[in-house]
Amino acid sequence: MTMEHILIVGAGIAAVTAADALRRAGHTGRITVVGDEPHAPYSRPPLSKGVLKKTETLDSVTLPALPADVELLRGTPAVALDRDARTVRLADGQSLPYDGLVIATGARARTLRADGAGETVLRGIDDALALEARWAHARSVLVIGGGFLGMEVASTARHLGLDVTVIDLVPHLVRQFGTYLTERMTAAAEASGVSLVVAPEGIELIGDDVVQGVRTVGGATRAADVVVSAVGDLPNVEWLASAGLADPRGLLVDSRCRIAPDIVAIGDVARTGERRTPHWGAAIDQARVAAVALLHGDEAAEYVPAPYFWTEQWGLDLKICGEIPIDVEPEVIAGSWHENSLLLQYSVDGVPVAAASVNRRFPITKLRALAQPALVAS
Ligand SMILES: Cc1cc2nc3c(=O)[nH]c(=O)nc-3n(C[C@H](O)[C@H](O)[C@H](O)COP(=O)(O)OP(=O)(O)OC[C@H]3O[C@@H](n4cnc5c(N)ncnc54)[C@H](O)[C@@H]3O)c2cc1C
């Protein structure tokens, strides 16, 4: 099949990387990128960090421009896919034909209420600017959700001098960072004056037009000037319902990120197994594999997950390769907590599975080699 026109739906890092990778892999035909946001493609990780702190702006987080010969349609959501006709319909009524389709529609913030009424979330640049404007007149912030995003928002709010509480159903951060790092991170959070609350039996939101606080099952209430829901994300698959692809767990792809020979799915919307890996590095790696797979099929190299993730909170700059096993004590390879700079390696049954750097300049390739030597050597 000749790939004359490749249509990319979504305009985040996965989409932009795919457009670039298609050109690098020799695609000379037309490429169109369709995004539903009005902005030029931008980077999301700084939203909870520099943008909320006002050290970054929309301009500074805008991604490098797409190749000049790639057409970008902004503010135009895709609303339906017809796989037989090979067309994607946009909300403005246009129907775009394609030979190859890249689905890169990412994810949106999950909310606690079904319709999200009154909830404040952080997913896009407009959310970040709106939150930052509300903070300017606030004294207190309650963050619901103690995962990496909730804790980054809390850290930034505290940095700005706000009274901050973070509430979760389970102990904060543990699932992503394991008990060893979590103990240090939560100690740093509490030392900065933040209150961390665990409410295992659940919470109920208070406030209709705007959420003003929570009530725990025990009956205690906690109110704040700004309440932020940071309770995970949901893949943007609804527009694919007519094509029978709207799996709420994300789009299952093969080892080359394909749904079919003419359709690939990448980034936060896709999953290669049971779970999605909604991280920046995975979106980039998948986009590169998918671009070649769309053009060259099985000649493309397979996607090999190489988990990489970073976060900045409580003065700790953490980079993590691999998946940290929850209760494993890591080996300190270099540095110490006393120096506030160190390198950790996690092993299971003597086999390294993850590595982390804390406040340390260390190349990611070396961190990856420390985390998964077998993977890097192969
Ligand atoms: C605040 C925040 C901080 C983060 N920090 C980190 C971090 O420190 N480290 C890390 O590894 N990861 C981080 N992430 C995750 C990382 O940003 C994502 O994994 C990455 O952005 C995924 O890229 P993507 O292109 O798949 O999806 P997205 O970035 O979500 O882009 C998808 C785009 O498609 C658009 N779209 C959706 N539906 C349609 C439609 N029907 N038609 C057209 N367009 C559509 C969306 O509006 C969006 O513009 C963070 C995420 C957030 C929100």
Structure commentary:
- It holds the Pfam family Pyr_redox_2.
- One of its GO terms (cellular component) is cytoplasm.
- Keywords: FAD, Flavoprotein, Oxidoreductase.
- Helix 1 runs parallel beside helix 7 (280-296).
- The chain has helices at 13-24, 50-53, 58-61, 125-135, 148-159, 174-191, 280-296, 364-371, 373-377; strands at 5-9, 30-34, 70-73, 78-82, 87-90, 95-97, 100-103, 107-109, 140-144, 163-168, 195-198, 203-206, 213-216, 221-223, 226-229, 233-235, 251-252, 258-260, 263-265, 270-271, 308-313, 316-322, 331-336, 341-348, 351-358.
- The chain is an alpha/beta fold and 378 residues long.
- The protein folds into 3 domains: 5-109 and 233-299, FAD/NAD(P)-binding domain (3-Layer(bba) Sandwich); 125-229, FAD/NAD(P)-binding domain, CATH 3.50.50; 315-377, no CATH class.
- The protein is globular and about 60 Å long.
- The strands form 7 sheets. The protein has a 6-stranded mixed beta sheet, covered by helices on one side. It has a 5-stranded antiparallel beta sheet with strand order 21-22-25-24-23. It has a 4-stranded parallel beta sheet with strand order 11-10-9-15, with helices on one face.
- The protein contains 9 helices and 25 strands.
- The site of flavin-adenine dinucleotide has 36 residues, from helix 1, helix 7 and strand 21.
- Flavin-adenine dinucleotide binds at residues 9-15, 34-37, 44-45, 47-48, 77-78, 104-107, 122-123, 149, 236, 239, 267-268, 278-281, 283, 309-311.
